[in-house]
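User: I'm putting together notes for a lab meeting next week and I want to include a structural view of one of the chains we've been expressing. I don't have a solved structure, so I'd like a prediction I can at least talk through. The sequence is below, exactly as it appears in our construct file.
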Amino acid sequence: MTLDFDRDGVALNDAAVSPDVLHKLAGEFEDAGVRVGARPFALSPTIQELLAPSGILTQLAGQRAGNPARPVRALAFDKTPDANWHLPWHQDRVIAVKARVDVAGFGNWTVKNGQHHVEAPARLLAMMLNLRLHIDDCDAANGALKVLPGTHHLGRLSDAEVKATATSGQPVICAVKAGGVLAMRALTIHASDASTTPRRRRVLHVDYCWGSLPRELEWALEV
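Assistant: Thanks for the context. Below is the predicted structure for the 223-residue chain, given as structure tokens.
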């Protein structure tokens, strides 16, 4: 199935990043000790370049959004035989901000590794997407993302509504070669299985937004 970003909420850019950049990024993942996941983490020089206004990822995000988009959260993941997990069906509803300020529409505050996270309202989530840059080949055997195409059109759903939608939906497995970038709207319902093969699955995940926060809140990520 060929995925269309506007219709399905998901799309793939093959070979978006050169082998040289991947090699540098892989080394920086090792230096940072990224294994299961990191949030927040110090942005390495290569990640800084990718996320800069002229960087490959930020340019891709703007093309997908149809608007200039800024990076607002960066995560790093690495599934290994010793650090393996699965994620149930869900939408990305959480954003990272500098400090907790109670604002209407934002709720369910948490602190993860010292950083404040909060569930954002649907109007903001509709103006968000994430890019997943794959350092390794990724397929069904090592935990590729599964998506329910078109579900971003349903808006922000409750956990029960997500579960009901997943029960009747037709999932698509998003296999990605090293250097490929998977783009996904925040409200697209997705999941991933634990890896069944002893291969690494290193991913740089970056959230982008082309909307604005209320003036009381500030994005946590500074590039």
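A couple of points you could mention at the meeting. The chain has one domain: 5-90+123-209. Helices lie at 5-8, 19-32, 45-51, 56-65, 122-125, 159-168.

User: Perfect, that's what I needed.
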